[in-house]
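Example for tutorial group B:
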């Protein structure tokens, strides 16, 4: 670690430092300041129970309200935060904000489980379970769901297994995100104490016109259910997709059909005025009839 640090130190003071690394450095210091300056925002996107048509929970998604650049989407700084290790501070901020949001919603009689995304670097942190328990104090553990991508688990499956086991023992819900896009190992999936599997949106968005996507969605739902997991379809954009997913026995959906991610403070109002979409004559018997 020391070597790595001094290497970075060399780069910092090297006169030949190129524009790209200069930009990286300023991005990192900006990100550090973003937390202190209160520029991070917690957005929420609802998940619906496809059968009862009730809102079943919400996913917390970070945004950066940058003073010059406006609202910056996570894909523009999360990968960077992961590379630099800053992600741990960001995750801690999100967990705290998610807990506050849950408590605030609960006060309004709107207690719903909230999901927070974790990254590989978080899973490598031995103290993660304790930190989460601490940051989420005041929230019943079953109301907090932690989403981890397949690839984050496969980076160091032994470590991930241990961390997820501890989180499970503490009562938190666990979800595998973007399922189908990483190197899935069914051997690990079987051992993991997870509760939920989220089908990557690429398959869900493709299933109305692509038979292969539809088959992948169908098999994933079956696999999840056979392993005793509940299954969420990401990228639910059309009434037709809702109907098809319902027919295939999918438990929950999340996507633009319900709502785009919104500032956390708007969620309670959105929830109170929520009406299930009119599924009309959206026919489920499209490609998989
Ligand atoms: P994700 O965890 O898979 O989150 C779902 C992403 O899909 C969100 O993008 C959401 O806006 C988008 N989405 C939802 N419904 C639809 C839809 O119907 N159609 C389409 N085209 N997209 C939809 P977002 O908010 O830009 O986040 C992108 C990714 O960034 C997330 O993917 C997650 O991997 C990462 N991310 C976001 N917030 C955090 C965070 O707080 N911590 C960590 N570690 N990662 C985060
Ligand atoms: Mg997620
Ligand atoms: Mg996802
Ligand atoms: Mg994704």
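The residue assignment follows.
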């Amino acid at each position: 670690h020391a070597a790595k640090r001094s290497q970075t130190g060399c780069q910092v003071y090297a006169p030949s430092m190129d524009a790209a690394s200069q930009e990286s450095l300023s991005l990192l210091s900006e990100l550090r300041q973003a937390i202190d300056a209160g520029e991070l925002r917690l957005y929420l996107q609802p998940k619906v129970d496809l059968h009862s048509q009730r809102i079943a929970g919400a996913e917390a998604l970070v945004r950066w309200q940058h003073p010059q650049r406006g609202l910056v989407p996570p894909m523009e700084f999360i990968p960077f935060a992961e590379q630099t290790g800053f992600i741990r501070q960001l995750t801690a901020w999100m967990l705290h904000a998610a807990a506050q949001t849950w408590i605030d919603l609960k006060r309004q009689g709107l207690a719903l489980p909230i999901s927070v995304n974790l990254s590989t670097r978080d899973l490598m942190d031995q103290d993660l379970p304790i930190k989460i328990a601490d940051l989420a104090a005041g929230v019943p553990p079953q109301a907090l769901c932690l989403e981890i991508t397949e690839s984050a688990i496969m980076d160091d499956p032994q470590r991930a297994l241990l961390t997820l086991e501890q989180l499970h023992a503490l009562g938190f819900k666990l979800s595998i995100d973007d399922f189908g896009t990483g190197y899935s190992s069914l051997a690990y999936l079987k051992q993991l104490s997870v509760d939920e599997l989220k089908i990557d949106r690429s398959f869900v968005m493709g299933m109305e016109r692509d038979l292969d996507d539809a088959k992948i969605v169908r098999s994933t739902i079956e696999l999840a259910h056979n392993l005793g997991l509940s299954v969420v379809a990401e990228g639910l954009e059309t009434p037709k997709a809702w109907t098809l997913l319902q027919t295939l026995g999918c438990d929950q959906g999340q996507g633009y059909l319900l709502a785009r991610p919104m500032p956390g403070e708007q969620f309670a109002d959105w929830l109170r005025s929520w009406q299930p979409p009119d599924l009309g004559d959206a026919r489920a018997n499209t490609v998989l009839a």
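The longest strand covers residues 55-66. Compare this with the pattern of hydrophobic and polar residues in the output above.
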